[in-house]
Amino acid sequence: MLLDTASMYFRAFFGVPEIKAPDGTPVNAVRGLLDFISRLVDDYRPTDLVCCWDNDWRPEWRVDLLPSYKAHRVVEEVAGSPDVEEVPDPLGVQVPIIREVLEAFGICVLGADGYEADDVIGTLATGAGQPVDVVTGDRDLFQLVDDEADVRVLYIARGVGNHERVTNDWVRAKYGVDARQYADFATLRGDASDGLPGVAGVGDKTAASLLGRHGDMAGIRAAALDPDSGMGPGPRAKLAAAADYLEVAPRVVAVARDIDLDRSRTSLPTTPRDPERLAALAEKWALGSPVERLTAVLAR
Questions:
Q1: Quick check: 35 pLDDT over 80?
Q2: pLDDT at residue 86 in the model
Q3: 272-293 tens-digit pLDDT
Q4: How many CB atoms lie within 10 A of CB 271?
Q5: Are 126 and 134 in contact (CB under 8 A)?
Q6: What is the DSSP secondary-structure string of 59-82?
Q7: What pLDDT is recorded for position 193?
Q8: pLDDT band at residue 78, thresholds of 50, 70 and 90?
Q9: What backbone torsions phi and psi does residue 2 show, to the nearest 5 degrees?
Q10: How confident is the model at residue 79 (pLDDT cuts 50, 70, 90)?
Q11: What is the number of H-type helices and E-type strands within the chain?
Q12: pTM for this entry
């Protein structure tokens, strides 16, 4: 089970009522994330669990290809380091607490410098040699769904307690494309939340139609340049106008699958690795109930 950790703690922050530790620090995102993990582990009993981390939420190599990538979320540019993302102050102070608690539990937290959590997830999901559940509220990761390799997404857009199990049939029913085509579909359609402009005038239906007829982005671009391809003048003109974008965007949208990662610590613990530290954190941050619940679930 691979957790898109930031996606989950953002949802916990906005979905769980404000709760404060004795010193006044908000801890609703910490408590909510722990309860999300408890529920998922209890329901699915994974052998391995990784909290995948954004070491760089806006990698420079993606920005170099497409400067608009997540640009609207930047609050401060930092030379030589990841830019500072717009995060509500009451959530930002909780992220280090989340790291400490997960480490005290012995739950694997894994990131890679210069890469997003999506890339860590993509790498761990590819060639895993076992069934994989990816937990996220991010549609971009639908590109990883692979029925043959037994990789699916547990999509939490409607909440962890009301998540959807995304398979290839689910993606096809929703978008009219196969999961392997989803990255190209997203590239064509665009995604304002990630600063992807897409191809002007191409929405879901046109993107799905183009992929259904031509297979993938390479096939679509080749058809657009071929006067005998049968592509209509409207789509052909739109694709031509977006040629520069289409040259780079597929590499931005596609998750990395070949990062060098340490896979040696992914086993789900049955007992906390550092119970004394965990107890101290639970007391300091008023995390008693969620820590007790997760400890009990791990021991089953």
A1: yes
A2: 67
A3: 999 999 999 999 999 999 999 9
A4: 10
A5: no
A6: -HHHHHH-TTTTGGGEEE--TTSP
A7: 87
A8: low
A9: -110, 120
A10: low
A11: 14, 8
A12: 0.94
Identity at 98, one-letter amino acid code: I
Question: Angle at the Cα of 91 (from 34 to 61), degrees rounded to 5?
Answer: 100
Concatenated DSSP letters of the chain: -EEEHHHHHHHHHHHS---B-TTS-B-HHHHHHHHHHHHHHHHH--SB-EEE--S-SS-HHHHHH-TTTTGGGEEE--TTSPPEE---HHHHTTHHHHHHHHHHHT-EEE--TT--HHHHHHHHHTT-SS-EEEEES-GGGGGG-BTTTTEEEEE-TT-GGG-EEE-HHHHHHHHSS-GGGHHHHHHHH-BGGGTB---TT--HHHHHHHHHHH-SHHHHHHHHH-TTS---HHHHHHHHHTHHHHHHHHHHHSPP-------TT-BPPSS-S-HHHHHHHHHHTT-HHHHHHHHHHHH-
Bridge partner residues of 85 (DSSP): 74
Residues of the chain with pLDDT > 70: what percent? 96
d(CA 242, CA 250): 13
